[in-house]
Amino acid sequence: MDTAPRHRLPIAGEAPPERADAARNRRRILDAAARIVAEKGTDALTMNAVAHASGIGVGTVYRRFGDVAQLLSALLDVREREFQGQFLAGPPPLGPGAPAAERLRAFLHALVDRTTEQHEILLAAEVADPCAHYTSPPQRARQTHVAMLIAELRPGVDAGALAEFVLAPVSPSMLHHLIADRGMGVAAIKSTIDESLRLYGFG
User: Fold this and answer.
1) Residue 10 and residue 4: Cα distance in Å, rounded?
2) Would you tell me which CATH number, out of the four given (1.10.10, 1.10.357, 3.30.160, 1.10.3470), belongs to the domain 75-200?
3) How far apart (Å, rounded) are the C-alpha atoms in residues 48 and 92?
4) Where are the residues of the annotated region Disordered (predicted)?
């Protein structure tokens, strides 16, 4: 039975290497789960549906992930690790090497894409526990990164608090409101982010 912890979102200690066949099965299961969520929504995600879509026995799916909640957590974990790798060590302007203002803008644009990509799962998690959104390891990593860039741009300000304000418009619930209620597209949201950065004096 897989005894990996249910929540492995932050980049920290790496898990022991998987056998090649176990890694392939894990990837097939996660790919199938991602397709189901993208095409039919989280309500359609069941262990039986994932087993059928991946071509892997339902017993193996259960042994690998335990339940749907763990499967959703793993889906977020994979994409979050990729995203963190991009802004921590990827090419500029999102990664190191560009001026702080360019990195901040690139980060917020990339976060819009990241949030809308898995919007349904992220929104469901935020609705279930709104406070956890602000204290989760991924959000703390984002807040730390944005605060670092703000401190470089505006020495002497409370960069940590200001980072919370800068990140607030990119929360899953805010993006849901902007897209569903105000009818804004991703390009319009990014343009509004650029304008807000100019108002903050970061543009």
Assistant:
1) 14
2) 1.10.357
3) 42
4) 1-22
Residues 3 and 16 sit within 8 Å (Cβ to Cβ): no
Give the model's pLDDT for residue 42.
81
| Model confidence pLDDT, tens digit, residues 96-108 | 999 999 999 999 9
Residue 174: half-sphere exposure toward Cβ, Cα within 13 Å:
13
pLDDT tens sequence across 60-99: 999 998 888 788 878 888 889 999 999 999 999 999 999 9
User: For residue 92, how far is the Cα from the chain centroid?
Assistant: 19
pLDDT mean values, one per 10 residues, the chain (203 residues): 44 56 89 87 89 95 87 83 94 97 98 91 79 84 96 95 95 94 96 95 85
DSSP assignment, residue 4? -
Q: What is the pLDDT of residue 38?
A: 79
Contact in structure between 51 and 62 (CB atoms under 8 Å): no
d(C-alpha 203, C-alpha 108), whole Å: 12
Domain boundaries defined on the chain: 20-66, 75-200
Question: What is the C-alpha to C-alpha distance for residues 9 and 137, in angstroms, rounded to an integer?
Answer: 7
| Cis check: omega of the bond before 5, within 30 degrees of 0 | no
> How would you write 114-147 as a 3-class SS string?
HHHHCHHHHHHHHHHCHHHHHHCHHHHHHHHHHH
